[in-house]
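ok so dumb question maybe but i'm new to this and my supervisor (M.) told me to 'just get the structure for PGG domain-containing protein' and walked off. so i did the thing. is this what she meant?? sequence i used:
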Amino acid sequence: MEEGGQYKSLPAVHKCIFFLLTMLGVLLQVIYATGNLPSPFVTNHNTAVMLIIDLFAYTAALATVMILPASNSTNMYELMNNISLLCGTLALVLLVLLLDPAFGWFTLACWVVYFVIIVTKSYQTLKTLSTDAVLYVRDKLKELKRRLNGSEEPQNQNGDA
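this is what came out, is it supposed to look like this??
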């Protein structure tokens, strides 16, 4: 994996997402604590649940991104990084949707455009990974079929396993 380029600057993007999540989360607490508004779970239950699910997905994707640099799979690293960035920005959009619904719908529309751009750019990576996965599974199934039919030769000439 390269030391420079886009891989080196990614933690800065995630730090920015963390900062904005913290600020919007605090602002959400202030708005709902000072006003006579019911909880977001009461007023916007679906959005609040989607936010929680998205935060878990963001955490899982980000953890995977942090693990993958140890491997040599740059395609998988790029894909998981894109997924983590999409989940992180979606969490920001959902928080904005809870805070100010009108502006939230606008940011959601912008996020959908961003999503389409990322999916379009990641198409080749997704195609390569899915092709590799299908070939791997096909080879493993052929090997399993040979073993079940008993046609596999012993590991060495003495017949030892």
